[in-house]
Write a structure and sequence with these properties.
single chain; mainly alpha; Cytochrome p450-Terp, domain 2; 2 domains; 3-stranded antiparallel sheet; 3 strands; globular; binds acetyl coenzyme *A; transferase
Length: about 375
């Protein structure tokens, strides 16, 4: 291939698909799911309704939503052998690794090898949305030596997840916060994990393999894993008064030091989701008190706006999500799995879209290695 073709590291600005799932304007902080602003959905909608909206393209009717909700509740329970598998996983393993392995295994219990039947694809989509919280809660408990709690069909998606995690129902305020967090993380255009899902889906792999691939992609600290890193960073700093010396020391040691939870390939202003999450955080802390990590985060945002603002680097969704999850009592390494519980609906929407007129992804490369090299037998090599 000619080396004259422009190479864009990270495929910046290179369209990878035509998509109607969401719209993003990174200069105006606009994010819409199927045309509806995410802020409106976070306040007015539910994660179940948003999942339907993303995958099907329009808001459901009352009847459609009731049937979908019923279908999800029916698919929450996981096979007892999958529970056994989860119990055998190392207790000190990362929950994202447990989720990745469990989702691939889920596809062995509920196979969907051909992806040409829309009814089977929809069934698998419902199972994936419904079962991810069960898997995440199961591993979160067994690694602490606690019994797995089976799902309840009388609770909605967010409340049931909280119940499986803690063995008690959330307060209405906590349920709403968790539901809003799921909505805010459900979809975000052509990010790394969504691209991964589309690439795997384009090979006509099963939906379980497609979602397992996306989970692997989400786990990295430059993507979904940033929410854990952001909270650890605020804890490491130790308080708002220590932010200035901390950032000065980091930048002195490495001028390119990356502050976790800041920056985005597309957003050049503060991420709309970070703004909504901050409102949610304020709402949660009004009932308790502001944790030190939140006070620290506010000061990091303030000081970094002066340093990085001119470069268009502002808080992204991961900046405040960890602080909110921590205030709900959720362990730090379960933050990214919660991201996956939410994002599965966006991944499935893109997978469904990809399968229409699918063409396998097979990009080019600019070859820079040697060519026509003579093979030297092993015994003749020095
Ligand atoms: N702190 C300080 N400087 C930053 C940051 C940051 N968090 N992010 C980017 N920059 C600077 C870079 O040093 C670079 O500077 P330069 O032009 O002087 O060389 C410039 O901004 C561009 O940065 P890139 O890393 O090239 O931007 P890219 O679009 O490739 O990466 C990313 C985007 C990965 C999100 C990056 O901003 C980052 O690593 N942020 C921290 C991790 C994070 O919060 N990830 C979550 C993203 S949101 C999500 O996935 C849900």
């Amino acid at each position: 291939m000619s080396t004259e073709i422009e190479y864009k590291p990270g495929l910046e600005d290179v369209p990878a698909a035509k998509s109607a799932v969401s719209f993003l304007d990174g200069k105006k902080a606009v994010l819409e799911y199927r045309g509806i602003p995410v802020e409106v959905l976070a306040k007015e909608s539910s994660f179940e309704e948003v999942s339907w909206l993303l995958i099907k393209g329009d808001l459901p009717t009352q009847k459609q939503l009731a049937e979908f909700d019923h279908d999800l509740r029916q698919r929450r329970a996981i096979h007892f052998r999958l529970k056994d598998l989860i119990k055998c996983m190392p207790a000190d393993g990362h929950p994202m690794d447990a989720l990745h392995a469990s989702v691939a295994a889920l596809g062995m219990f509920y196979p969907c090898h051909t992806v040409t039947d829309p009814a089977k694809n929809w069934d698998a989509s419902c199972r994936l949305i419904a079962a991810l919280p069960t898997v995440v809660a199961a591993f979160a408990r067994t690694r602490r030596g606690e019994e797995i709690i089976d799902p309840r069909s009388d609770l909605d998606h967010a409340a049931n997840f909280y119940y499986m995690l803690f063995g008690k129902e959330p307060s209405p305020a906590t349920r709403k916060v968790l539901d809003a967090c799921l909505i805010l993380h459900a979809e975000h255009q052509m990010n790394a994990s969504t691209f991964t899902a589309r690439v795997t889906g384009s090979t006509l792999a099963s939906p379980y393999q497609t979602i397992a691939s996306a989970i692997g992609s989400l786990s990295g600290p430059l993507h979904g894993g940033a929410n854990e890193e952001a909270l650890r960073q605020f804890e490491e700093i130790g308080g708002p008064e220590k932010v200035k010396p901390w950032i000065e020391a980091k930048r002195a040691a490495d001028p390119k030091y990356k502050v976790m939870g800041l920056g985005h390939r597309v957003y050049k202003v503060k991420d709309a989701r970070a703004t909504v999450l901050q409102e949610i955080a304020e709402h949660v802390f009004a009932e308790t008190s502001r944790p030190k990590a939140y006070e620290t985060a506010l000061e990091v945002e303030r000081i970094c706006a002066g340093i990085y603002g001119p470069k268009g680097i502002y808080p992204n969704v991961d900046f405040y999500s960890g602080v909110v999850y921590q205030s709900l009592g959720i362990p730090t390494d379960v933050f990214t799995p919660i991201f996956a519980i939410a994002r599965v609906s966006g991944w499935l929407a893109h997978w469904t879209e990809q399968l229409v007129g699918n063409r396998i992804f097979r990009p080019e490369q600019i070859s820079i290695g040697k060519t026509d090299v003579k093979y030297v037998p092993l015994e003749q090599r020095a």
